[in-house]
Amino acid sequence: FNENMLNMINWELEISASLPEAIKNHDLVAFYQPKIDTQPLKIIGGEALVRWKQSNGRYLAPDQFIPILEKNGQIIDVDYYIYREVFTFIHNHIIEGRPIVPISMNVSRVHLLSHDFLRYIKSLFDEFPIPPRLVEFELTESIYIRNSDEALILVNGLHEMGCKVSMDDFGTGYSSLNMLGAIPIDTIKLDKAFLKEDFSDNDKIIISSVIDMSKKLNMHSICEGVETESQIAYLKDAGCDEQQGYYFSRPVPGEAFDALLENN
After folding, report:
1. pLDDT recorded at residue 237
2. I want to staple 252 with a disulfide (CB 3.0 to 4.6 A). Which of 33, 48, 49, 256 is the partner?
3. Cα–Cα distance between 138 and 131 in angstroms, integer?
């Protein structure tokens, strides 16, 4: 036991104790990162990501609090809060006649052990009558592998509501190919680990094969973590449907995302 361990314990306790007040005060903020269709170049979606605003106006990095909340189970409260924020965001745009695109939201593995998730999403649709096509949920690849039965129930439940479901972080180390035939996924999201500044012939074969496979399975493909023109060009040539990454835009607050949609 050392001072660093003590500091980590105190930090975890501080995060856990501060969360209820942060939710109450709306210090948790939904940021949106655009998803891009490169043929032609336009925004066709967005991913909602949580940021924690501090009293000094700065935002706490997700890796400083998300793992803690996943470990203690409070991530459910965070997710439900962000889901409501996103549904409100979409609903207000429809009511006001402003441009809007489908927004995806992340699903923690903790939700697979909860029977409330689908009921909560259904309650949001009852409260905010928005087209289900504007809502998508992203489950990480590891969730499908470790909890395949629960994942199938969740995916089928979301499909019954009309929502799309994607497999996030595809290719991050798990053998998930057998899951693609067993669970009805709409989109494969290639992890940024696939991307390099200089693609080798083997890299190109692997990426092209995954994209081609997704098409044959009637799934869309999107690659995240795109940062360079060479990556954009190769993914475009390989037939990747969508791209997402810092090259196009970092995650931005709702107002900035609105401006991107207005200008497209």
Report:
1. 86
2. 256
3. 18
SS3 of the chain: helix, strand, coil, percent, to 5: 50, 20, 25
218 vs 203, higher pLDDT: 218
What is the rounded distance in angstroms from the CA atom of residue 47 to the CA atom of residue 86? 10
Q: In terms of Cα–Cα distance, which of 127, 133, 132, 151 is closest to 141?
A: 151
Instruction: Return the pLDDT at 175.
Output: 52
* pLDDT per residue as tens digits for the range 214-234: 899 899 999 999 999 989 988
pLDDT, position 67:
93
Q: Can you tell me the distance from the alpha carbon of 26 to that of 11, in angstroms, rounded to the nearest whole number?
A: 21
Give kind and range of the element (H or E) at residue 107: strand 103-107
pLDDT tens digits, one per residue of 86-114: 999 999 999 999 999 999 999 988 888 77
Give the CA distances from residue 163 to residues 118, 123, 130, 241, in Å, rounded to whole numbers and listed in that order: 11, 14, 11, 19
CB 128 within 8 A of CB 90: yes
Residue positions counted in the chain: 264
Task: Report in angstroms the alpha-carbon separations of 127 from 29, 86, 168.
Answer: 21, 13, 28
